Amino acid sequence: MHLDVVFFGSLTDHVPQEIRGIAVPDGTTVAGLAALLTDVHPALSGRLDHVAVAVNRAYATTSTVLCSGDEVAFLPPVSGG
Length: 81
Hints:
This protein is of the alpha+beta class. It has one domain: Beta-grasp domain (Ubiquitin-like (UB roll), Roll). It is built from one helix and five strands, in the order ββαβββ. Strands 2-1-5-3-4 form a five-stranded mixed β-sheet, with no helix packed on it. A hairpin with a 2-residue loop joins β3 and β4.
């Protein structure tokens, strides 16, 4: 199945453009997608462990099962004031 993956904040510095659209096996979860992305692009290692994730603009958990056509957004924590 095909997913659209969006990265925000500092994550954009570590993500090659080609993984913004990705094919994954049916039944992939958010956690599975994060593991796949980290395996393919080691620069993401450790960076996806503490981010919020939204699927189709609604917050999701790591156990959320993804469907073809979903948009998955990885949102790193922000700081500042």
